[in-house]
Amino acid sequence: MTKVFIQTYGCQMNVADSDEMFAHLASRGAQYTENLDEADIALINTCTVRDHAEHRAVSFLGRLAAWKQEKPGRVIIFAGCAAQRLGKTLQKKYPFLDIISGAKEIEHFADTLDASGLFNAPGKDTHQLASGLTGYVTIMRGCNFACSYCIVPSVRGPVKCLPTEDILADAAQKARAGAKEIMLLGQTVNAYQFENTSFADLLNQVSRLPGVERVRFTSPHPIYFTPEFLEAIKDNPKIARHVHLPVQSGSTKVLQEMKRGYTREIFLEKVRALKSCGFNISTDIIVGFPTETEDDFKETLSLVDEAEFFAAYCFKYSPRQGTPAAKMKLLPQNILEERLDILLNKVRGLSDAAYQAQVGSVQEVLLESENKGRASGNFWVKTRKSYPVGSVIKTSIEKADGTLLFARD
Ligand code: SAH
Ligand code: SF4
Ligand code: F3S
Question: pLDDT digit string (tens) for 102-126?
């Protein structure tokens, strides 16, 4: 039996893509293994959003060179966003790569496998990688924005929304396989529109599928959160009360130079509207964009205070070849490091405060183990009693400790 080892870097879209690629390998007779040593195929699904992410994926190739030398019949598949960016240069530098399949090629992955001549034993095993309680469902590929720092549109291409019917079939299949929570995925996921189906329609439809207890989504873009959207979903308790809403900067001037399409004020308005429907908000922030002054950075700090994010992922700006911002003069690294430190210090207290604020509230918890689960707002909750994994309970919260809530159940 051919065994495949999978290493996935990057965002949840890559996790979903790895699932999809595995399904094609499985239907050609491959079985999943977590152990590289016993594998015959290594699939690396890569990210290139920051230089560091790409570097990690490419470094892994060094290890795989030795792995392949041990048994030359082994197969290496290099896929995803870094594969898309580096393309042919990879084959020259790493001649031992068997298949290079960029992120834009995912829809043709099956043909790529067949064309390679390496998989001539048709198998019947079409099961997917066990994604546990959360089923990841891609609803759109690519991105139509052109944020000046970002390489994603160039490696993923323009937006293509998947047909609603296919999405519902995919989610229903994952629910039948045991998923209780469905996570809808896209780079600007809330821009989804397919014929007459809007993103709000889709969320409501997925939430009604048998077995689906909760629907999440990532990453939305602030400009698509309209009053109409909130009106359409606000009474549906199955839509999780957590939104990951990347802001990138708190300075309107920097946001304009980043080409984000909103101002600080518009972003804060969206945050207030989402909060009024009970949504808990996390974000992404970039520090040290080339034109970011000390004052701009202070605006980011004050926005973090005003928005009261529940969590924030903070990144040092990383120039990506071919993007407009890559032509701008970089700020000195020590400034980036200083700003990141200051921001991280501020952010550290945010989760604790958000968890403390839940004491006394009633939460609906989806159990991910017998006595620990996640509330709709994405808080971790520890229960007193034990429950079957995958069940949903309602409980009040008696205390918070760091990033854990304790239930009174
Ligand atoms: N589509 C999402 C983000 C996708 S990329 C959105 O628009 O919100 C994930 C995160 O990586 C971004 O939110 C941003 O914070 C970060 N990122 C993207 N390009 C970057 C770069 N060149 N340098 C540093 N961080 C970057
Ligand atoms: Fe990148 Fe902007 Fe598209 Fe997000 S919206 S993927 S940051 S270009
Ligand atoms: Fe990385 Fe590609 Fe996702 S660049 S963040 S894996 S879309």
Answer: 999 999 999 999 888 888 665 555 5
> Which listed ligand is nearest to 158 at the C-alpha?
2
Stretch 174-198: mean pLDDT, rounded?
A: 96
Ordered by start, the domain boundaries in the chain are: 2-116, 130-240, 244-357, 362-407
Which atom of ligand 2 approaches the CA of 248 most closely?
7
Pocket of ligand 1 (CB under 6 A): 49-50, 149-150, 152, 187-188, 219, 221, 246, 248, 284, 286, 315, 317-318, 320
Residue 150 Cα to ligand 1 midpoint, Å, equals 6
Ligand showing the shortest atom-to-Cα distance for residue 261: 2
Q: Which CATH class is domain 130-240?
A: alpha beta
To the nearest whole number, what is the mean pLDDT of the chain? 94
199 Rama class: left (phi>0) / alpha (psi -120 to 50) / beta: alpha
Cα(153) to centroid of ligand 3, in Å? 10
Confidence of residue 131 (pLDDT cuts 50, 70, 90): low
Residue 159 CA to ligand 3 center (angstroms) comes to 14
251, 292 Cβ separation under 8 angstroms: yes
For residue 221 and ligand 2, the question of a CB distance below 6 A is answered with yes
Q: Cβ neighbours of residue 92 under 8 Å, at least 6 residues apart?
A: none
Integer Cα distance of 231 and 44 in angstroms: 42
Query: CA 384 to CA 372: how far, in whole Å?
Result: 9
Pick the CATH number of 244-357 from 3.30.750.200, 3.30.420.40, 3.30.70.3040, 2.40.50.100: 3.30.750.200
CATH code reported for the domain at 2-116: 3.40.50.12160
H or E segment to which residue 202 belongs: helix 199-207
| Local structure of residue 239 (DSSP, 8 states) | B
- The response to whether residue 102 sits with its C-beta less than 6 Å from ligand 3 reads no
Ligand nearest to the CA of 246: 1
